[in-house]
Amino acid sequence: MAATFTYKVRSLKADPNDDNYINEATIEIFGTEDSITKSITAQCIFDGNKAGVGSDFKSIDDLKKKEGEAVIVEWVKAGWTDYKVKKLEHNVQRAIDDAKAPTVTLISAEDTSYDPAPPVTPTPPTE
């Protein structure tokens, strides 16, 4: 089975000298499969400036709205390219798979019907 992934913006860095142009986003990628959810955090740096994006520029106020998160996630995925997106999702999937792996059961000798161990002779103190 494969996980379902959700991308959430954790933080943004903006340039106050360039009309708060977003130059970095920190994203947390959540993967959920069955009842297990794991995540990984990664950053994406956006080169350039407000003038470079022209009419595609979005104000910080618009990006802070609920629908702005989807825009930022779209930018991040484009910046990372499909290769990095798949690699990050693979790492989250691996964490889920590890959590689903059977755990080791530790059985203490005291919880069995084994014969008791012989007593250990104490070492005499040295002078």
**Average pLDDT over all residues:** 93
User: Radius of gyration, rounded?
Assistant: 26 Å
Number of domains: 1
Structural class by SSE content: alpha+beta
What helical percentage do the residues reach?
A: 25-40%
Distance between the termini: 67 Å
Described by the principal axes of the CA atoms, the overall outline is elongated
Count all strands and give the number.
Answer: 3
Strand order of the largest sheet: 1-2-3
Number of alpha- plus pi-helical segments: 3
Proportion of residues in extended strands: 25-35%
Order of helix and strand elements from N to C terminus: EEEHHH
Poorly predicted parts: none
User: How is the main sheet built?
Assistant: 3 strands, antiparallel
Notes on the protein architecture:
It is a single chain. The chain is elongated, with a radius of gyration of 26 Å. Strand 2 and strand 3 (36-45) form a beta hairpin. The protein contains 3 helices and 3 strands, in the order βββααα. The termini are far apart. The chain has one domain (4-100). It is an alpha+beta fold and 127 residues long. The chain has helices spanning 50-53, 60-63, 66-100, and strands at 4-15, 21-33, 36-45. Strands 1-2-3 form a 3-stranded antiparallel sheet.
Kindly list the characteristics that best describe this protein.
34% helix, 3 helices, alpha+beta, 3 strands, elongated
Topology:
Elements: E1 4-15, E2 21-33, E3 36-45, H1 50-53, H2 60-63, H3 66-100
Antiparallel strand pairs: 1-2, 2-3
